[in-house]
Amino acid sequence: MSACVFILDQGTSVHKLLVFDRQGQVLETFAAPAPTTEHHPDGFGFDGFELLKISNELIAQALRKYEQRLMAFGFSNQGESVIAFDRQTGEPLSNVLSWQCQAADVFLAKRQTCFQDLRVLSGLVPSAYFSAAKIGHLFARRPALLQAARNGSLVVGTLDAWMIWHWTRGRAFVTDPTTACRTQFYDIHQLDWSDTLLDIFGVPKICLPKVCENSSFEVLCDDGPFKRRALPLLASLCDQPASLIGHGGLESPILKTTLGTGAFVDLSRADGTAHTGLLKSILYGSGGKAQYYSEGGVLSFSSAFDWLENRLGIPRKAAFDALDGDDDVMVLPAFSGLGAPHFRADIRTRFGGVGLQASPLSLAAATVRGLVFRVSEIIDAMATTQNLPDCVQVDGGASQDTVLMQFLADALVRPVVVQDLPEMTSLGVCRLVLDRLGEKLKPLSVSQRLFEPRDQRVPVQYQNWRSWCAEQLASHGDSH
Known about the structure:
Strand content: 15-25%
Structural class: alpha+beta
Largest sheet: 7 strands, mixed
Number of helices: 15
Radius of gyration: 22 Å
Helix content: 25-40%
Strand order of the largest sheet: 18-19-17-16-22-23-24
Shape: globular
């Protein structure tokens, strides 16, 4: 029986564990719904032990079936989500604060004089989307936690650090550069935690995990589900750079969008000047150096489809099929605030052109159009400072709908290439794990579908939508 590895992908809506052979082919997928995010006193998030339980059950399933064949594993996490917990016992001292939580926006606004330092050092725009404001706000509201952090009894973990602590009985409290840089505590040029950034948010460095380079990342996990079989964790990455690596972003310039709970547009080889409304983050860290990528995100994408079904009673498929309907209805979708290139936590979903004749179906279709146009808006922002590849690679669950993908190609006026393996995040981590094992995995010849732009009405709709959105944002004024 041939050897294999598994990759745990902790998505926002669903957790997946994919078992790969040494050629990078998927042998089996295990999946479970992710923890339910709710509003708690700390902010919008979920229970850390629930996250641990769900992930551990998936690992246990894989170990029961593939125990003798497994050589190592890899891990991808949600990035900006964080949790405070006891350094000695691992007991949570806060809920997990989800990347979607914007409760710290007012806390962040009081630090406007530091925004230039935030932008230059972290590569990120000032936003409550990132971990730093969430933790600073948590400590400001709960001084006892700040004191515990200062005396070393409390630690703050990104989700990878939280899981690894429990998989090693507390021996390892570590993260990697791709995740560390999404906290907004990390200097992406010096490749270390920044005293300047930590001081801005009032967070002591002692409470943060050690950052281990991607090229030498290795942790032996032997607790929890790994009591059955200890395995080395050889790659741990933030989800979006992992997906970009899956598409081949380490080897060549790649423009891709992942259509999951949110929609994230990423461009590899982003070493030049970035658009001020986009993010510059680390794709891979090795030898004291880093490769970078540029990113912009729509904070709600597939999660907005759930709203369409729950509030309007319109299944997503019906909304997709109605995209070429009434284009007088306009929607600026901002269910969790407005992400790149605006970063306006104060903005929520807005509707225009909605008369008595507007049906729930026309509202649903206009919402989907707005979501696609938000992706287009981010790619347009990238094009102002970067030379973009001719086509856009697309993955994620929503990429499997042909009507939606054709509309995306029409809106972008660019060819769209959809991978028939939507789990490119897991593939990216798998490539790094196999590379560490000496299995130099070539880019897979994954089957794909090409969508060429063909409907010339859609770019006109997009420009009309952008004009309307500009009016909406101008009428609302600045957020800070």
